[in-house]
UniProtKB/TrEMBL annotation:
It comes from the Bacteria. It is found in: Cytoplasm. InterPro entries: Dehydroquinate_synthase, DHQ_synth_AroB, DHQ_synth_fam, DHQS/DOIS_N, DHQS_C. This is 3-dehydroquinate synthase. The keyword Flavoprotein does not apply. Keywords: Amino-acid biosynthesis, Aromatic amino acid biosynthesis, Cobalt, Cytoplasm, Lyase, Membrane, Metal-binding, NAD, Nucleotide-binding, Transmembrane, Transmembrane helix, Zinc. It comes from Cohnella hashimotonis. The chain crosses the membrane at residues 108-129. Catalyzes the conversion of 3-deoxy-D-arabino-heptulosonate 7-phosphate (DAHP) to dehydroquinate (DHQ).
């Protein structure tokens, strides 16, 4: 056999099909039945529960007892509470602990906590041993309607929020509305910002449900909460279905997040909740939309009024110059393209634009002082 001295070249086409399927189960009492749920979904499996100190102190005994009763061997890693824990430093420490525990590629990681835990554990699951399965058991409203769904996992970097991450979908999401009975008022309100966001971009009927149910929501009426969690989760899944890996970064789910992420960074991670920053971002976007004539004044005021009624902020003390500087980092992440999502002619419709500058944000914040 002779081999030609001149190498022949050709393009080699590579196709790697990928399908992610998982269920979101929303039921009261799921935390207490977690062991039985895991046994049903995965059979014989070992697990590592990763939680934060506050959540584990409040609910850990229930989870440990449930896993023990189901005969599921489980270790527990407890992280410090707070957004500052969501970092590469934390991820590196957890990698070491997982190695010490001899966690393998079939070991299931259980993210048991709020958005910080969900995002951090998802990132660790995506990168440990090149990817291990994980399930989300969200304990805050924000995590139940947002962080736990969609497979966007990340940790923060000093330059910005969620700058180091991946797409790694969970194997299951277990949402227990009853855990919100022990949620702080601030965390509950923060979660409602994401619910309002979804209503503005996708469902006027949900927006009306929230308006009529503000008192019941803040009083933690579990029936009302279950309704909005179910509807918001379904809408988010529908919005994600055509773009599961965020190929189109202009999608409506970014409503409130461009300015919101900038505000959150400049206010300081941990000092302002993610939902509070998104609330400011939505209020700014609503004012800009009215100023630019793409949203009726009555609709813009309705959005801002609901944010205020839920006890969420609509303004920030961060200077506009610093907000705009942080926005430029977001533009870099989005490949130089920064499309703002503004509310449209009616609730449930949005307008995309890149015609926004620092003066638009300044005018909006000044108007929101009233």
């Amino acid at each position: 056999m002779m081999i030609s001295s001149v190498a022949e070249t050709a393009d080699i086409a590579v196709t790697v099909p990928r399908t992610d399927r998982y269920k979101i189960r929303i039921r009261d009492g799921l935390v207490a039945r977690l062991g039985a749920e895991l046994r049903e979904a995965f059979g014989a499996v070992s697990a590592v529960v990763i939680s934060d100190r506050n959540v584990w102190t409040m609910h850990g005994d229930k989870v440990a007892a449930s896993l023990g009763e189901a005969g599921i061997p489980a270790d527990v890693i407890v992280l410090p509470a707070g957004e500052r824990t969501k970092s590469l430093h934390t991820a590196n420490k957890v990698y070491r602990q997982l190695l010490d525990l001899r966690a393998r590629r079939r070991t299931v990681l259980i993210a048991f906590g709020g958005g910080m835990v969900i995002d951090t554990v998802g990132f660790i699951a995506a990168t440990y041993l090149r990817g291990v399965p994980y399930i989300n058991v969200p304990t805050s409203l924000l995590a139940q309607v947002d962080s736990a769904i969609g497979g966007k996992v990340a940790v923060n970097h000093p330059a910005g929020k969620n700058l180091v991450g991946a797409f790694h979908h969970p194997a299951f999401v277990y949402t227990d509305p009853s855990v919100l009975l022990t949620s702080s008022d601030r965390d509950l309100r923060s979660g409602m910002a994401e619910v309002v966001k979804t209503a503005v971009i996708a469902d006027e009927a949900l927006f009306g449900t929230i308006e009529r149910g503000v008192s019941a929501i803040l009083a933690r009426n579990t029936e009302t909460l279950a309704v909005i969690i179910n509807r918001t989760s379904l809408l988010k899944v529908e919005l994600l279905s055509g773009d599961p890996y965020e190929a189109d970064l202009r999608r409506p789910l970014n409503f409130g997040h461009t300015v919101g992420h900038a505000v959150e960074k400049e206010e300081g991670y941990g000092r302002m909740r993610h939902g509070e920053a998104v609330a400011v971002g939505m209020a700014v976007a609503a004012r800009i939309a009215v100023d630019k004539g793409v949203c009726p004044a009555a609709t813009g005021e309705r959005i801002v009024a609901l944010i205020r009624a839920l006890g969420l902020p609509v303004r920030t003390r961060v200077p506009v110059e610093r907000i705009w500087e942080a926005v430029t980092v977001i533009r870099m992440v989005r490949d130089g393209n920064l499309h703002y999502v503004l509310p449209g002619r009616r609730l449930g419709e949005v307008v995309m634009t890149n015609d926004i500058d620092a003066s638009d944000i300044a005018r909006a914040l000044a108007a929101l002082e009233d």
